[in-house]
């Protein structure tokens, strides 16, 4: 393994997967950006532009089979031949009413959940990001940007006391570079960090401050409500001077969960631990005796607003699972109808064949005088 590949996140597991392909003409590369019809990637020699072969596009019609930003791929010339096994995949439910998972990026070690200490500050949104990151087995880090603009930092930090749980919180200012030194510990050689947050949170400006130059475009937010325009319209990875990768992502208007309660359990680990202490395993936390959660709500050790967020996310996941179940049931019904139609057509064909055989047999019997 070369040093450059290690800086990009290459490891022994990826090396073994690559070696198993057994093709000397292949070389590893990492997807840095998705463009229309092609990908910008990094390999041990620098930047290159690669594409999927036409045969792949013809057979893999679903987009979940396509490479995503952060993927490691095996390349032959300028053509992608294989996608190496993924880990640390950040994904979310796609916006809208369709039950479809959108994969954002792969091989992510840390998710910087960036929120501006202005009108962009929203603890509920941070809660949802924490659940999503935990569902993907990615370590979340809360980064509160624009500390130079905030006059009530302690008050806003207090709102995150119960939300953050074990996730570390860092106060920074991309503009004045305040607090950026504390983030340097995450940029170890070979690590990949994704920045997530709404438009106007200052993700692109933060990356420019961390790498020490204006590499990504950044626009000012609207003063009246701190709303930002979509400066970043695609996902793009940047190689850091320390030998690590950082990923900029577009702002997300909707943060929909995936229907998986594991992320909720991790993001609300305090409530999950309390639930395990209830007298009944199937406690609904409403009126049962010896309910640890009711007790915590009554004595004030658990905030009712946090418990409400927990129930809301659990209910949303349940609806997601039910909706996926309905979709599966509909698909099963379609398959049953197709099977019945196929069996019916086979049966009709058999009857026609049998009728034809009998007709032929009678004809033959008549010709030779047999009864």
Mind explaining what this structure looks like?
- With 371 residues, the chain is of the alpha/beta class.
- Among the domains are: 3-83, Beta Barrel (OB fold (Dihydrolipoamide Acetyltransferase, E2P)), CATH 2.40.50; 90-248, P-loop containing nucleotide triphosphate hydrolases (Rossmann fold, 3-Layer(aba) Sandwich).
- The protein has eleven helices and 13 strands.
- The protein has helices at residues 3-7, 12-19, 54-59, 123-135, 153-158, 161-164, 203-211, 261-267, 269-276, 292-299, 304-367; strands at residues 27-35, 38-43, 46-50, 72-76, 79-83, 90-93, 101-105, 110-116, 139-145, 169-171, 192-196, 236-239, 245-248.
- The strands form three sheets. Strands 10-9-8-11-13-12 form a six-stranded mixed β-sheet, sandwiched between helices. A five-stranded antiparallel β-sheet has the order 3-2-1-4-5, with no helix packed on it.
- Helix 4 (123-135) crosses helix 8 and helix 8 packs across helix 9 (269-276).
- The longest helix is centred in the last third of the chain and has 64 residues, at 304-367.
- It is flat, with a radius of gyration of 28 Å.
Q: Enumerate the strands of the largest sheet in spatial order, edge to edge or round the barrel.
A: 10-9-8-11-13-12
The parts where pLDDT drops under 50 for at least 5 residues are 219-232, 326-331
CATH architecture of the domain at 90-248: 3-Layer(aba) Sandwich
Q: CATH homologous superfamily of the domain at 90-248 - what is it?
A: P-loop containing nucleotide triphosphate hydrolases
Strand element count: 13
Q: Determine and state the CATH class of the domain at 90-248.
A: Alpha Beta
The helical percent reads 25-40%
Structural class: alpha/beta
Oligomeric form: single chain
Radius of gyration: 28 Å
How is the CATH topology of the domain at 90-248 named? Rossmann fold
Morphology call: flat
Largest sheet: 6 strands, mixed
- Mean pLDDT, rounded to whole units? 80
Order of helices and strands: HHEEEHEEEEEHEHHEEHEEHHHH
- Binned strand content: 15-25%
Helix tally? Answer: 11
From the N-terminal CA to the C-terminal CA, the straight-line distance is 85 Å
